[in-house]
UniProtKB/TrEMBL annotation:
UniProt keywords, alphabetically: Signal
Organism: Rhodopseudomonas palustris (strain ATCC BAA-98 / CGA009)
Name under which the protein is recorded: ABC transporter substrate-binding protein
PANTHER family: BLR6548 PROTEIN (PTHR47235)
Gene3D superfamilies: 3.40.50.2300
Signal peptide (residue range): 1-22
Family annotation (Pfam families): Peripla_BP_6 (PF13458)
């Protein structure tokens, strides 16, 4: 009996030691709160993207009002970085070293997220569900603390799917590509070239880049149109550039097959400014449900619409940015629930790398979050969408990303 008591005592002490050790690596966490850090472009040329941050914050507020996660309220400290990588770095240091957040979540954009990745990985601070579809984020060997949550398969997969679709329509198609001059845009271009293989030099009529800060992309579109290419591929994360490209191509009468970057498949910020006629028939790739103003049997879409009316009445619910922000909020809550009471940074990252068939209400049918310690791509599959002049509609079966 005495040996049993000794064994139980030792086991209890070991459990306490393990818990204490976990808490030692759980900054930003108390018995009632977990603090997370975020940066968003609330100002600057990409400020339209801040709707995503507003939706995440509003979703977490709703969760807190319902009791939080495992008894803890989630405090998201969100700072403006103007979509400027140096500002992202400055804000992230403040969040980690000053505010003492548990982790950084949902940083907007490839370039801002890239600017802070080394700092966060060196300091073993999870960089969770950053907002980018660049393939570079699937690198658990070299960036074990960084994971993206894209709104569609990564840029290379997106490009390959679109090239395959265009060549099925026209095997001899020539491609014109407008792309953002950053890591994300270059990633998309690699996908185009990989998909075209040895035909790339002949099949790409012209590829033209632009800077996020450029006031217009009209000159690039005019140059691309002069090639008389059969396919026009537009890659950007900034709604302004996407809308300008569609409008200018329409104005000059250029009517190729058009593909729009998945991040720009947005009626409120892209298609409406471009003009209905300019956008009709445009194709894109997506993993999120297209917005439906009057859903009949889709309780999830109805819940999203009610959420927007109640919490963000000043924003258009038919905005992929808010649909996506709502989804990121759901994903963060699912992850924190999976962590249980061990909210150490080690366990947060461990659980992020072990998500199995996690459903989110606004993902298209058959798509769930799945990760492993050797595969940091939560979303790999998508559907082709077409803008019909009023809304985006699904026009394909589920397509597998590679």
């Amino acid at each position: 009996m005495r040996s049993l008591r000794l064994w139980l005592g030792a086991a209890f002490a070991a459990a306490l030691a393990t818990a204490a050790q976990a808490q030692q690596n759980a900054p930003g966490v108390t018995a009632t709160e977990i603090k997370i850090g975020n940066t968003m472009p609330y100002s600057g040329p990409a400020s339209a993207l801040s709707s995503t941050g507003k939706a995440i914050a509003a979703y977490l507020d709703q969760v807190n009002e319902q009791g939080g996660v495992n008894g803890r309220k989630i405090t998201m400290i969100s700072l403006d970085d103007g979509f400027s990588p140096p500002k992202t770095m400055e804000a992230t240091r403040r969040l980690v070293e000053g505010d003492g957040v548990a982790f950084i979540a949902a940083t907007m954009g490839t370039a801002p997220s890239s600017a802070i990745a080394k700092y966060l990985n060196t300091n073993k601070v999870p960089q969770i569900f950053l907002i980018s579809s660049a393939s570079k984020w699937n690198d658990p060997a070299n960036m074990p603390w960084s994971m993206a949550l894209p709104w569609a398969p990564n840029y290379m997969s997106e490009a390959k799917i679109e090239v395959a679709y265009a060549r099925a329509k026209n095997p001899n198609a020539r491609f014109a590509v407008l792309y953002q001059n950053d890591d994300a845009g270059k990633d998309f271009m690699r996908g185009v070239k990989d998909a075209l293989g040895p035909d790339a030099d002949k099949a790409i009529a012209l590829a033209s880049s632009f800077e996020v800060s450029d006031p217009t992309v009209d000159s690039q579109v005019l140059t691309l149109a002069n090639t008389k290419a059969d396919v026009f591929m537009i890659y950007s994360v900034t709604p302004r550039a996407c809308a300008q490209a569609l409008r200018k191509a329409h104005e000059i009468g250029w009517r190729p097959i058009r593909f729009l970057a998945s991040g720009c498949a947005n009626k409120a910020t892209v298609m409406d400014p471009a003009g209905v006629d300019a956008g009709k028939g445009v194709l894109s790739l997506g993993s999120l449900k297209p917005y439906v103003a009057e859903p009949k049997d889709d309780k999830a879409m109805s819940a999203y619409i009610a959420f927007m009316k109640a919490r963000l009445p000043g924003l258009d619910p038919n905005n992929i940015g808010t649909v996506y922000g709502y989804t990121v909020g759901e994903a963060l809550v699912a992850l924190l629930k999976q962590c249980g009471n061990d909210l150490s940074r080690d366990n947060i990252m461990r659980q992020a790398a072990n998500m199995k068939n996690v459903p989110l209400s606004l993902l298209l049918p058959g798509i769930t979050l799945n990760t492993s310690p050797t595969d940091f791509r939560p979303i790999k599959d998508g559907y082709l969408l077409e803008f019909n002049g009023n809304d985006w509609v699904v026009v394909s079966e589920m397509l597998r990303g590679t």
